[in-house]
Amino acid sequence: MRIFDTVGMPNPLRVRIALAEKGLAERVEFVQVDLAAAEHKQPAFLAMNPEGTVPVLELSDGTYISEVAAIVEYFDGLDGNRTLTGESPKERAVIHMMHKRAEREVLYAMGNYFHYGTPGGSPTLETYKAPHWAGRKEWGALERERGINGMRYFDSVLRKQPYVAGELFSLADISLIGGLMFAKISNAEIPAELESLTAWHMRMLERPSVKHPA
Amino acid sequence: MRIFDTVGMPNPLRVRIALAEKGLAERVEFVQVDLAAAEHKQPAFLAMNPEGTVPVLELSDGTYISEVAAIVEYFDGLDGNRTLTGESPKERAVIHMMHKRAEREVLYAMGNYFHYGTPGGSPTLETYKAPHWAGRKEWGALERERGINGMRYFDSVLRKQPYVAGELFSLADISLIGGLMFAKISNAEIPAELESLTAWHMRMLERPSVKHPA
Predict the structure, then answer these.
(1) Quick one: closest CA in B to A82, which residue?
(2) Whole-structure pTM over 0.80, yes or no?
(3) Is the link from the previous residue into B55 a cis peptide, with omega within 30 of 0?
(4) Is residue B158 a contact partner of residue B200, using CB atoms and an 8 Å limit?
(5) CB atoms within 10 A of CB B21
(6) In a 10 Å sphere around its CB, with 0-12 CB exposed, 13-18 middle and 19+ buried, how is residue B208 labelled?
(7) Displacement of CA B132 from its chain's centroid (Å)
(8) ipTM associated with this complex
(9) CB contact under 8 A, A89 and B96
(10) pLDDT per residue over A177-192, tens digit each?
(11) Considering only CA atoms, which of B72, B64, B28 is closest in space to residue B46?
C-alpha cells in the first residue's frame, strides 16, 4: 500500500498517528506530495482524489481512498480489533460523532482561518483558495472565532472524561490533535483558561503514536 | 429511542431513509423541533447537541447522538448486517469516503448557498447565520458554484456505476439524496446535461425507503 502525503501537515499526521497506533507503519510506502507547488491540485493528483486533498491511500488493487476517517476505517478493520473506531454500535456512534465535531468545529475552522485569515501556505497554493473574494479575510476571522469556540467545547468535554469520546483513545482524539496542529501553525493558541484541553493536549503529545507517528 | 428532527428537512430525511432501509421505524419515537423558531439554537437543545443541528438520536440510556453518519452507524450495527456502511475494510472505506464527498461537495455546499446566498429559512433562524457579515452573499454564490461542481463529479461517478459507492445502495447514496434536496429547496437545479446523475436521482426517488421514509 502507498500513501500520498506531505510531512508536517495536520491531515497526513492524523493517518500517521493511526498507523502507529495499529502497528502498521511497515506495510505502507509514503510518497511525498509538494503542497507548496500545488501538486495536489493538478490533473494527475485529481485523478486519484478529485477533492485535491492529502493524504490519499492507494490499496494494492489500485483503489484510492481519501478522507482521513475513511482511511482510518480501513486500517482499523484489518485486524478485526477496532481500537480506533469502536466495536459496539454505541461506541461507533459516539466516536464518529466526536470525530466529526473535532473536524468541523476545530480542524476545518482553523484550516479555513489558516488559508483565508492568515497568509496561509505558498502563494502558488493560495491561488486555489478564491484569492479575489473580497470577503475572504472577514470569513477567515469568523472561522478563527468558531475554532476557538470549538476549543471551549472540547475543554468542557475533557473536564469530565479522559479522552474526546470517553474512556478510551480513538479517532476522535486523533482529529482533535490535527485540529490543534492547524491552530498552532496559524498562531491561534489554546486560550490559557482552557486547562482541561491543555492538559489533555500535553498528554497526547507524549503519547508514543503522536510523539513518533509512522 | 427518540429522534429530535424536523419533517421536510434534508438531514432528518437522511436518517429517516436509513430507518426505512433497516426496518427500524417502529422502534423510534419522533419529536419535532421548530427550526423556524430556532429552537435548535436554544440552551435546552444545545445541551443535547452543542452544534445546534437536527437530527439528534436519544438512546434509551440517555446518550445523545448527533451527526447523520454517526446515527446511521448506530442503526446499521444493531442487526449485525451492515447493509448501509459496508462489511469489509475496503467497502467501509469506500462508503465513508463517498459519503463524505457527497456531504462536503454537495450537501454542505448547497446548505451554505441556501442560508447565505438565498433568503434561507425564517428571519429568526437566519439571525444565527452571521447576518451582518458583508461577504455572506458572495460566499453563498461561491458555495452554489462548488455544489454544482460536486454534481458534475457525481455525474461522472454514476456514469460508471449504479450507486454512489459502487454496486450497492449505501450511506453515500443517502447523503447525495440529502444534498440534492438542499439544492432543490434553493432552486439550484441539476444541470440538464448531467444525465447520469439525473437518472440515478429519479431512480432513487422511486426507491421505497426514499418514497416512504420513516
Answers:
(1) B89
(2) yes
(3) yes
(4) yes
(5) 25
(6) exposed
(7) 27
(8) 0.96
(9) no
(10) 999 999 999 999 999 9
(11) B64
